[in-house]
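We include the pair:
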Amino acid sequence: MATSTHANSHATTGTTSGGWSTQRIATCALFVAVSMIVSYMEIPVPPVAWLKYDPSGAVCLVAGLAFGTGTGAIVSVLSWLPHLFMNPWGGLMGILCTLALVIPASLVYERKKTVAGAAAGMALGAVATLIVACSANIVITPIYTPTMTSADVMAMIVPVLLPFNIIKVALNCAVTAVAFKPISKLVSR
């Protein structure tokens, strides 16, 4: 009898107690794959060539809102792993900024599953992303670009970094707002 209970506690189908079912693992893998692919669709944003927008944050945000904070965090990290091998500092920035958006938004939405909850979560995530992006750039950019000092980066916060990150977060939240309902319905089937 004990072995039967033990065997069922590791079942991978149809868990309702918050466990990871086969379907949830497959869904998470799908979101990771899509996010990873679109993370390479980089659009340079002038005036600084190393600032690029990609829509992977929206994919991670949809995953977090639809399937919870844990899934959103996993998708956020795993989708940026290949970047860590090719561009470690850019990959690290991608992970930090995506987590800063996804985790607060998902946590708020988990507590208040309404349009207002989603909007409040995305607003909180947007503020967290702006703080993380600007702060991390002060530390990481001088390492990534040795010709720049932290003071140079701080001078770029208001005219360059803040507007870029506001645009990036606004696009990710707008795409999520449009895509969330249809994607979550499609995946839940």
In short: Residues 9 and 160 are 52 Å apart (CA to CA).
